[in-house]
Amino acid sequence: MSVTAVPGFVAAGSTCGIKPSGAPDLAMVATADGAPVTAAGVFTSNLMTAPPVLACRDHLASTGGRAAAVVLNSGNANAATGAPGRADAEEMCRLTAEAVGCSTDEVLVCSTGWIGFPLPMDAIAPAIGPLATAMSPEGGPDAARAMMTTDTVPKATVVTGTTADGGTFTVGGVAKGAAMLEPNMATMLAVVTTDAAVDAATATDLLRSAVGVSFNCLTVDGAESTNDTVLLLASGTAGPVDEAALGTALADACRDLAVQMADDAEGSTKTVFLTVTGATSDAEAAKGARDTANCQLVKCSWYGQDPYWGRIAAEMGAAGIAFDPDAITIAYGGQVVYAAGAVQPVDEDALSAHMAGRRLDLDVDLGQGDGTAWIVTTDLSHAYIDENMRTS
Asked: 258 with 275, same domain?
């Protein structure tokens, strides 16, 4: 279940010595024959943009949306590294191209890890050739593991759909991400593959839409990283696919990966699915959802398994959206805890059981219109602080 579930793609992961722990830290995903295919990317909007992101953008532009391979390292973000960092990113692409048998601009590059440290190219460079040689159709799980930083488990997905002639197409993906998860996207990398036939412009549009309903609906701490990248490689070997069907499959794959990222977020004990309805517009629903999801008081109440509606109502009321305290309805696990300006009776045992679970369902109806939004987020625990109070 990964990028290599799609026929025609190979992958591998290895240890080259970036991480002091000796954990896997170098990955590669490529076409089996080294030939370029349709490619698309969606990237961070952070203006402190890492050199690998700049390299990917330039390569996609120069090839018109074609790529044969993606090389990824973890343990070092190659961010805030200036011109030397850009040269290192290009060197990773050059070495990968040499090993795979394509041109340098047909390689995309991703890095994740600590910001502000030069890449240890003396460790990375000699490992790229052997990594390319090791790629196989069974290598997807190894690639997913080598992408991990503070993740505790690798993240992968597979979705299938129906082609125009009644056959089957596949979408596979791997991702990493466990913190700084905030639109646009996250401290995350994702590589998605498909055998559906699609042109580069359509692939880009569909990928952006898929990211918009998945990774961009995920927040852990309201922070946005420097390296966020989602890449799509489409071989076309399955033949023509209805655009809507491919869009749905991409969205389903990305949403699955996004939820896995929330489930594995640094220090989290709760994954919270927050749905806001009844806003005057979708934009206002999204604003209320995002403000609530990022509120530290609300997050602490989730960690304490406390369905305290007051913090939810207060954050919605402060979000700068249309709001009436007598119109809002708040429900946890399908049980209304506040409505019509008053606390509501609940099944205390059932509510406590829901709040004690790993996943919480929170529904807020603002009673103002037809606008809706969905977001997945997490609680705030002591472990999150422990993880993020150090840089080494």
From this structure: no
